[in-house]
Amino acid sequence: MRFAVRSSLDYEVKSPTVFILNVEAAALHRQRIIVESLNLNPNFPIERFADDEGGSRFIRVNAEPGPFHVDYHGIVEMDMIEKAPETIPEMPVGELPLDIMHYLYPSRFCQSDLLGRFARREFGELEPGHTRVTAICNWIHDHVDYVSGSSDSQTSAYDTMVLRAGVCRDFAHLGITFCRALNIPARFASGYAWQLDPPDFHAVFEAYLGGEWYLFDPTRQSALQGLVRIGVGRDASDAAFSTMYGEAEFKGMSVSIDAIDESAADKEPTTQAVAVG
Amino acid sequence: MRFAVRSSLDYEVKSPTVFILNVEAAALHRQRIIVESLNLNPNFPIERFADDEGGSRFIRVNAEPGPFHVDYHGIVEMDMIEKAPETIPEMPVGELPLDIMHYLYPSRFCQSDLLGRFARREFGELEPGHTRVTAICNWIHDHVDYVSGSSDSQTSAYDTMVLRAGVCRDFAHLGITFCRALNIPARFASGYAWQLDPPDFHAVFEAYLGGEWYLFDPTRQSALQGLVRIGVGRDASDAAFSTMYGEAEFKGMSVSIDAIDESAADKEPTTQAVAVG
Amino acid sequence: MRFAVRSSLDYEVKSPTVFILNVEAAALHRQRIIVESLNLNPNFPIERFADDEGGSRFIRVNAEPGPFHVDYHGIVEMDMIEKAPETIPEMPVGELPLDIMHYLYPSRFCQSDLLGRFARREFGELEPGHTRVTAICNWIHDHVDYVSGSSDSQTSAYDTMVLRAGVCRDFAHLGITFCRALNIPARFASGYAWQLDPPDFHAVFEAYLGGEWYLFDPTRQSALQGLVRIGVGRDASDAAFSTMYGEAEFKGMSVSIDAIDESAADKEPTTQAVAVG
Amino acid sequence: MRFAVRSSLDYEVKSPTVFILNVEAAALHRQRIIVESLNLNPNFPIERFADDEGGSRFIRVNAEPGPFHVDYHGIVEMDMIEKAPETIPEMPVGELPLDIMHYLYPSRFCQSDLLGRFARREFGELEPGHTRVTAICNWIHDHVDYVSGSSDSQTSAYDTMVLRAGVCRDFAHLGITFCRALNIPARFASGYAWQLDPPDFHAVFEAYLGGEWYLFDPTRQSALQGLVRIGVGRDASDAAFSTMYGEAEFKGMSVSIDAIDESAADKEPTTQAVAVG
Questions:
Q1: Which residue does chain B place closest to A121, by CA atoms?
Q2: Which of A135, A136, B37, B221 has CA 20 to 30 A from B209's CA?
Q3: How many Å apart are CA D111 and CA D133, to the nearest integer?
Q4: Mean pLDDT for chain A?
Q5: What percent of chain D clears pLDDT 70, i.e. is strictly above it?
Q6: Under a CB-based contact definition with an 8 Å cutoff, are residues C272 and C215 in contact?
Q7: How far D151 CA sits from the closest chain C CA (Å)?
Q8: Closest by Cα among A255, C98, C47 to B21
Q9: D145: which chain C residues are within 8 Å (Cβ-Cβ)?
Q10: What is d(CA C3, CA C76) in angstroms, rounded to the nearest whole number?
Q11: Rg of chain B's alpha carbons, rounded to an integer?
């Protein structure tokens, strides 16, 4: 299943500014980039770096004052595996791959150490496995209002637990937090989200179950089989689409994703578990 | 129904210290003090003051260095009214007595402005009235663990909402917070609690319904008809049994309450609503 | 010294809504109302209540759907006392009037229990008295940025201590918090502020020193001798100019204050301490 | 300069428990392990994993119920470089090695996004470089009380900024937070600390300056040239000496470090900057 993704970002740079940008589709096992193109205007030199493990691709740009435009488009082939959710187990901590142990730890926006008692009370008695993480997502969907503008870049899962309102990023943070509190490795994923309306960058999360990372979207706004991931990390602090060091004004952006084969276009949101790595 | 209450507090005063003590039974409409005695050793002079509205009685003592012992005992007649809970309505904000409007406002430990969305989602659709406040207490009892030592004097309802553990004071704060968020006036009450085991100062809360203050104990540890109130206020910051300005060490205390007529001693915890004023 | 004050508030009421309004000049010892007029349009019936101690005057209005306009104007004579700051002492806790002891306690936006160590470290060694509270104001002025829009109605002194930005209300909360942490009674005051530019409701604080309440404005934006107080209380939760229970939209307001005798108009901001009660 | 380090940990395991232990000296460029020995009793099988970048070495143990004892000792040769502090510059964000960019991001205990305004106000005007980070350490030392028991494993830099008390871990978190807020990469380091009295695991931090990681100890309790690092990471959540998944009781531990060549034993705490990587 192939998708065409595109994003355009516009800035007005006021003083020499370093941009860390993370807008390109991640290079992942089940997410293959067919063609892509990144254009900067002005054409400042870029340096590339990647998070080996998650496949997130960053560029660093030293931008000079003036208008600065970033345009990315690519065609990405997704090869996600769909599985029956009830067949997917959790893994004992003692058997987790050692290189993902840190996805059990609390992070800036996911204070799993503080929400542990709640998570164990609410979800501790449920049957372990993919269905338990779905129960977590259902809880979030049912107990937190999706309200644009109700949170900001400093809002954490701790806050959302009390305030009960947020956007996709907050929903993902809360899901990650509950998973980690139950000893399920979980991480944040930003991406291009097929069928998201209106189009925008989206945030979901992944939980490590039965030897694979599985996607979850507690907002229920996107079709998981059409989630082209950009950044993967501990939480939003690892996956900002743009971080600026200097003075620059964000002027606007546009984001799009389209299915580019016919079969996909007809496809219903899956009811299966979606494994991505 | 009469109760004998007693409390003894021991301090070692290190430097001249002002004590604000609030251990005497409050003088309230339905709580009449038959006899009482307050003894300080050494017998420092005291100044008395009271919160007119709630009837809380405070003393201020300028204590000199050395051992300092406070002993209070009294016999209190309680004249609480028991009513069928389902007959007790909430009152529209526009009809509340004007002198209790401030019990709708957030306070140090009861951030009702922050927990409003949760309260409305969880309790907003319930039938208004005494039964709704009971539903709030049931929620607290079912969702928060009573764990000695899990909180401290700085723990607020905001924290308890996330951490999901606390003691009587935290349970009361959470109940107050939810009530205020639903526009039900609510206040904190400390007291001597009959049948509390082990004996200790206790904390409950009152909600203003149908023209009366009604008692609620989300911990379910005390018998409401045997709750001899000491301090009443916005939250625990208004009703500390002891506040010290100076250097003094708290060495220990004992607290007791006994029913002193036979009928009382047999009495079961009531299933009725208990109005106290 | 006389001032003409005026405020106009506009609302669009969507469903029957209870308003608690606090826009009239407070009736205080040294603040005498010469003439005044409150007009509501439509002319809904009002109920009045007051906080005896502080003199704040509230009205409760049951408003029906439709446009709702509130207009208040009055002439107020101020009789504040100016004193040499260095002559004004702090009072020992043991000698404070008993009816203001609660202004030592922490409140919703003034967590003096949490900021105590800082306050004692930073201000504990200073000479007690009016000059120490001025030092507190200077610290706030020098260490917190006045930035419109940087805080909201839920921001507390705890937050401002970390975030280091706020508006008049946050500055006042921080000043109150430091005072209480040093055992100086302190309270919040809202008012019409002469020479404030642009005109708006303003927030300052009062500290109890040498037997009087003294005004302080850590923002340095107003002339203290021209501060016509409206609401006085523990913090902003006691002194909101408008609280709504129901659905109503705030459409805008205007606020003004003018000196109405010639001598006043010439007057410089005082460098003296200003006692108000 | 060589050091003998040793740690012993005692647990009583109640149910099968997974331990993640991080007590071995890290394998780092300027910290060479001469000999070492890790003994578990009972001798459960272990799995090893390391954080490539920082050199932290973890073991995972599946422990069965009963007493569980961990003993580690090693001899480590330290080859730190001492440099004149005033010669060490900060690096522009645009020139930082790309693989350490994440040490600019906020983390669980280091909310550099929230403390940015304070950091820039307080330290923003200082000359960039090693001396500025020393100024940060001096500020922490002067403004935060070192008080055992004043914080716990959930205390973050945000809290410490208000509460102004903590232990080594809190001091390190605050230092890291200020550095990141100033765009200086910074990370947490746990270790065996020569001359720390009483002996214990210690926490310090590293800042990336002029192409090297430099050690800083805002507590001033250890000699930097004798800091044998164990764990390095974003904050304490990456460098716990022990994390348990299961039921086990911590019974006690002992930690020691001794200089094992004569010259070292005489050495004064350095006044130079200490580079470790």
A1: B143
A2: B221
A3: 17
A4: 94
A5: 97
A6: no
A7: 13
A8: C98
A9: 117, 121
A10: 5
A11: 18
Chain C, 107 to 146: residues with Cβ < 8 Å from chain D are: 114-115, 117-118, 121, 143, 145
Rounded to a whole number of angstroms, the distance between the first and last alpha carbons of chain C is 16
| Strands A248-259 and B46-50, sheet pairing | unpaired
Q: What is the amino acid identity at position B1?
A: M
Average pLDDT value over all residues in chain D: 94
Q: State the pLDDT at residue C262.
A: 62
Q: Find, among B212, D20, D75, D108, the residue nearest to A111 by Cα.
A: D108
In b/e form, how buried is each residue of C171-198, taking b as 16+ CB within 10 angstroms? bbbbbbbbbbbbbbbbbbbbbbbbebee
Contact B179, B133 (CB under 8 A): yes
C-alpha–C-alpha distance, residues B15 and D68, integer Å: 48
| DSSP E strand stretches across chain A | 2-13, 17-21, 31-41, 46-50, 57-63, 66-78, 81-83, 145-146, 165-166, 186-193, 201-209, 212-216, 227-233, 242-245, 248-259, 273-275
**How large is the average pLDDT for residues C114-129?**
96
Compute the Cα dihedral for D188, D189, D190, D195 and give only its sign.
negative
pLDDT digits (tens, 9 = 90+) for A171-222: 999 999 999 999 999 999 999 999 999 999 999 999 999 999 999 999 999 9
Strands (E), chain D: 2-13, 17-21, 31-41, 46-50, 57-63, 66-78, 81-83, 145-146, 165-166, 186-193, 201-209, 212-216, 227-233, 242-245, 248-259, 273-275
Q: Inspect the interface and report whether the beta carbons of C107 and B108 lie closer than 8 Å.
A: yes
Q: What is the mean pLDDT of residues D105-119?
A: 97
Q: Is pLDDT above 70 for C245? A: yes
| CB atoms D145 and C117 under 8 Å | yes
Q: How many Cα atoms within 13 Å fall on the side-chain side of residue B210?
A: 17
> For the purposes of burial, counting CB atoms within 10 Å of the CB of A125, is it exposed (0-12), middle (13-18) or buried (19 or more)?
exposed
- HSE (side-chain half, CA atoms, 13 Å) at B34: 13
Q: Give D199: exposed, middle or buried? Use CB within 10 Å, 0-12, 13-18, 19+.
A: middle
Residue from the list B60, B98, B99 with its beta carbon closest to the beta carbon of C98: B60
Q: Does D152 touch chain A (CB under 8 A)?
A: no
CA-nearest residue of chain A to D93?
A18
Q: Which of A67, A79, A88, A26 is nearest to A212 (CA)?
A: A88
- CB-nearest partner of A161 from B143, B161, B165: B161
Alpha-carbon span A175 to A187, nearest angstrom:
9
- Amino acid letter for position C88: I
CB contact (8 A) between residue A121 and residue B114: no
Residue C262 in tokens: 């010639």
Q: Which of D128, D134, D76, D127 is nearest to D273 (CA)?
A: D134
The pLDDT, as a whole number, for residue A149 is 94
Q: Please tell me the distance from the alpha carbon of residue D2 to that of residue D60, in angstroms, as a whole number.
A: 28
How many residues are given for chain B? Answer: 277
**CB atoms A111 and D108 under 8 Å:** yes
Find tokens 């800083």 and name the residue: D216
Q: Decide: C231 and C6 in contact? Cβ < 8 Å.
A: no
Polymer length in residues for chain A: 277
CB contact under 8 A, B117 and A143: no
- Which residues, 6+ apart, have CB-to-CB distance to A97 below 8 Å? none
Q: Which tokens hold the place of A85?
A: 């959710």
Contact residues for C229 (Cβ-Cβ < 8 A; gap 6+): C25, C26, C28, C31, C55, C189, C190, C191, C276
Cα C149 to chain centroid distance, Å, stands at 19
Query: And the tokens for A209?
Result: 């179950």
Residue C64 neighbours by CB under 8 Å, 6+ apart = C13, C16, C42, C44
Walk me through the domains of chain C, giving residue ranges and CATH numbers.
2-79+242-263 (2.60.40.2250), 81-235+271-275 (3.10.620.30)
DSSP 3-state assignment of C113?
A: coil
- State yes or no: pLDDT of C268 exceeds 70: yes
